[in-house]
Amino acid sequence: MSEVEMAYSSIIENFSVSTVLGELFFEDEFIAVLRSIDSSRSVEDIVRILNFHEIEFLINNFNVCLIADALKDSLKKELFTGFDEVWLFKAQLPQICLEGVPYSTADAMYEKNQMDPKTLEVFENVRCELLLADGVDLWVAAREKKVFEFVLGLSEG
């Protein structure tokens, strides 16, 4: 596995999905898959939350997706308040439903200080750019080292 394909992952104490997303520059081609919002994980619950907040979305392979502008809108509306999981893709969505992939929020953690290996395997296989999942702390997985280091740098102030 090459360095670009290998996931860099870590946990960042007392950090959140919204903090990182608020600092990222989203190019138009970025698309987010929302796997959890405030511990709500079903497609129906996530769709209900997005409709309530009047945020545009699309469904692709049973994944709830936001284009870059909708993701920016969700940040303005303070959608992400904890126990959220967001997978960011560049230009193309995963060709599989991510519903069966283990979650990475704090209320679904595989083991203390370790992301589920199956989650990391799927992350790499679907060519996700960045996975963010929080609860008490923030799990981060990035495909590129520079993105991973950028997120770690945010936590250091």
What is shown here, in short?
The chain is of the alpha+beta class. The chain has five helices and seven strands; from the N terminus they run βαβαββαβαββα.
How would you portray this structure in words?
This protein is α+β, with helices and mostly antiparallel strands and 157 residues long. It has one domain. Helices cover 29% and strands 23% of the residues. The protein has five helices and seven strands, in the order βαβαββαβαββα. It has a seven-stranded antiparallel sheet with strand order 1-7-6-5-2-4-3. It is globular. The chain starts with 7 loop residues before the first strand and ends with a helix.
Helix vs. strand class = alpha+beta
The share of residues in helices is: 25-40%
Unreliable residue stretches: 1-5
**What shape does the CA trace take?**
globular
Q: Count of helical segments?
A: 5
Q: Compute the gyration radius: what is it?
A: 14 Å
Query: Biggest sheet: strands, sense, closure?
Result: 7 strands, antiparallel
Task: Give the neighbour order of strands across the main sheet.
Answer: 1-7-6-5-2-4-3
Counting DSSP E segments of at least 2 residues, the number of strands comes to 7
Order of helices and strands: EHEHEEHEHEEH
Report the average pLDDT across residues: 88
- Give the number of domains: 1
Estimated share of beta-strand residues? 15-25%
